[in-house]
Request: fold
Amino acid sequence: MNKNLIITGLVIFVLAVLSPFWFNIVTTTQAAPEPELLGKAKTEKKCVLDKYDMRANHMSLLDEWRDAVVRDADRQYDAANGKSFGMSLSTGENSCLGCHEDKAKFCDTCHTYASVDPYCWDCHTNPKEIE
Amino acid sequence: MMENNRRRFLKVAGIAAIGLGASPAISFASSDAHGAAVAVKRKNKEALSAHRWGMVIDTNKITDEIVEKIIDACHKTHNVPDFNHEVDEEKYPETRPVNHKQEVKWIWEEEFHNAFPDKEDEFLAERFHDLPFLVTCNHCKNPPCVQACPTQATFKREDGIVLMDFHRCIGCRFCMAACPFGARSFNFRDPRPFVEEIDPRFPTRSKGVVEKCNLCAERLALGEQPHCVEASEGAIVVGDLDDPESEVRALLNEHYTIRRKQSLGTEPSVYYVM
Reply:
């Protein structure tokens, strides 16, 4: 009598504890969106750092760039891979948006998915949005 | 025979160990020989540089027309909001009505007795009363705003320009209280609805930050003269005050010049040819 109760209780408990796992198995989960590479970024293939480094560390890189530009007046970045970049989000051909033409498809898709809300664009402007 | 073998074994093992230990050093040295790539941050090749940037304004050459042109050029290219601009209701619905006491300005016109309160003599030459005086941030040698800023959002760059890091400003406005020239403006509200046409080459500001003239640091970096100099038809010259051969020093040598509120000891870098 007691034994049966305990076992059913345990089964329910284990099922409840593992609910995230079987819930994920039963339902189809939405995969993280891939940032879409368009235009120049698609043909160029080489960013400031390699792909995975960029994905993980672009925020630190931008932070470093910001201080370099504002405080030291350094505006050019000769990357370790031999390419040169303008340390700017949106001004000039070899700035971030100069290559990654579509902010909505490149920046925003991931940021929205990850629920981060950087305030870059409160001040910086996307040249394509102005027109 | 046995002992001899052990000895030999130990010898070989020892040499092998040294070889193994040295291999990382060898590979490090050989990779160094290829020139290990390290990222470098540097200035633009065409950038203008100086030890201490300064400005000379020739008041004889400044007319109302030029004043207007200069202010327009500066404010348009730096996305300075004009609160007389009619807001586009479609783009910015429900914009609060404007409080006209809240203006934002980088360079503006001032009367002599306001710009130079300590130089107002009893019988001042009459022409000074009517002359338009252009005033802006003086990029002082001893900037009191920099000392007042608790976050180092405003700072003096190596080349003498007093700059704002808008990212870092917390909007405490201590700098505005510290500046004896009123050169700083506060963004009481989002400035974007009041910018007629946003220039993508320069960011706008956001609500809650202080702004002021940056001596067109973004243009000097491209090897171009500041907007006010370009629009001034020769009335404003910007150059290196520390270089005795520079154009500004030549002007200072030739003419009698004054500075604003010199007695305060902030050492302004903007000179006025009288």
